[in-house]
Each structure stands twice: as C-alpha cells, then as structure tokens.
Amino acid sequence: MTENITKPGGKDVGTLLIAALFVGLGLLTLHDVTGYSDSDSIVFPTTVAYALIFFSVLVIIYSWLKPNLENGFGSGDWWRRLMLVASMIAACLMMPYTGFLPATAVAFVGSLIAARHEGWDFRSAAVFAVSGAVIMGAFYALFRFALNVPLP
Q: What are phi and psi of 148, to 5 degrees?
C-alpha cells in the first residue's frame, strides 16, 4: 500500500474537482429546467440543484481552508467507486426507456454490490432484495403521488 503524502498547505485536489463538478451540474440543471413547460415539474429539480450548489460551495470553502492530507482521493477499491458511478449513469440513461422502477433497481443493485464488503448468503440477499423493493416502491409513491413528479 502506498501512502499519499502532501506538503503542508496543499489543497484537496480531488475534493475540489468533484465539488466544482457538482456546482457545474447544479448550474446545468438550473439551465435545463428553464425549458420545462409544466411549472410543477420545475420545483423538485430546482430545489435539488440549489441545494447541490450550496453544499458543494460549502465543501469547496471548507476544503480550501482546511485541506485533507490524503489529497481528497483517499484509498480504497477503485472498482467499487467505478461501479457505483457506472450504475448511477446507467440508471439515468435507462430511465426514459424503461421507467422509474427498473432504472432504480439497476442503481440499487449496482450500489449494493459496490458497497457490500462482506460475503453474500441467501438470507442477506433476500433481506436486501425485499428492503430494496420496499424503498423503491416508497420513493415511487412519494414522487408520483405526494410530490406529483411525472415519472417515465
């Protein structure tokens, strides 16, 4: 294992880059919602975009003032990080074609495989499958019925 050593006063390059990316994605989202025809559909993505920008700016300020010695990248399994991002991107690309629930299932399964460090057995797989189905159903009901978000 190699150790990441940075000079004192060095900035969290990884943290700053990702936080800046999130600020950009928030701004892109705010620009995208200007083309929505249904005014009710604008509320949720706009709120999330403003929160994303606000908290990302807070992360940038905090990382600039108090940098992390690991340079923002840390250690760990890169395949897990890549699988998490890939499952989220796949879900986003699938959603217009397959709908909310199948795309969310892909994101859930990919995230679960990336996050689970312990071995798998039938009991844990069954518990995660049932709890995942309940969580996805609850989010579907929340978005569809409580928040009136039009879902594909």
A: 55, 40
Q: What is the pLDDT of residues 91-106, one digit of tens each?
A: 999 999 999 999 999 9
Token representation of residue 70: 């690991």
Mean pLDDT of 75-84: 82
Q: Which two tokens stand for residue 130?
A: 């049932």
Contact present, 19 and 60 (Cβ < 8 Å) = yes
136-150 burial, b if ≥16 CB within 10 A, otherwise e?
beeebeeeeeeeebe
Which one has a higher pLDDT value, 148 or 106? Answer: 106
Q: Give the total residue count for the chain.
A: 152
Those residues whose C-beta lies under 8 Å from the C-beta of residue 59, and which sit 6 or more positions away, are 15, 19
Q: Does the pLDDT at position 142 exceed 90? A: yes
Tokens standing for 82? 């890549």
Nearest 5°: CA angle at 86, between 83 and 88? 110
* Residues 6+ away with beta carbon under 8 Å from 92: 103
Q: What is the C-alpha to C-alpha distance for residues 140 and 100, in angstroms, rounded to an integer?
A: 7
